[in-house]
Design a protein that fits this description.
The protein is mainly α and 129 residues long. It has one domain (9-125). The chain has helices spanning 3-6, 10-40, 47-71, 75-97, 104-125. The protein is elongated, with a radius of gyration of 16 Å. It starts with a helix and ends with a helix.
Length: 129
């Protein structure tokens, strides 16, 4: 289990699991919103928004798989989860900062996703000595 060698508590494991689950649900929900917006308000479902949403969904699946392996005791998967989370923070903040590139609702989504990943990265990588 992850907490045996890294000093991570069961509470922290549960919190990371919950944060990643929220990230996965939000990624899937974003694709769902884009499907609806494509029909109802196409100007809000830009090609850039679709591209971002698909990439986020792929990383959500990857993040979930790596964390599952980490919970089984794979130290490399634990590190990979933290690194992926940290990269997602940077990417989401940078993309949200680009003026006019994404619809305003997606910029809010990006910042929320970045906040989730800050928490995951700190919980996982903050324990590394």
């Amino acid at each position: 289990m992850v907490n045996s060698s890294a000093g991570v508590s069961r509470r922290e494991i549960g919190l990371v699991t919950w944060l990643i689950a929220v990230y996965v649900v939000a990624a899937v929900a974003t694709v769902g919103v884009l499907v609806a917006l494509t029909v109802l308000a196409p100007a809000q479902a830009t090609n850039e928004a679709w591209g971002h949403a698909v990439v986020v969904a792929v990383f959500a699946a990857l993040l979930h798989m790596r964390w599952r392996a980490a919970k089984r005791g794979n130290a490399r998967a634990r590190t990979a989860t933290g690194v992926i989370a940290a990269v997602l923070v940077v990417v989401n903040i940078v993309e949200a900062a680009v003026p006019g590139f994404f619809p305003p609702w997606m910029r809010v989504e990006m910042l929320a996703m970045a906040a989730l990943m800050v928490a995951v990265a700190l919980l996982i990588l903050g324990r590394r000595r």
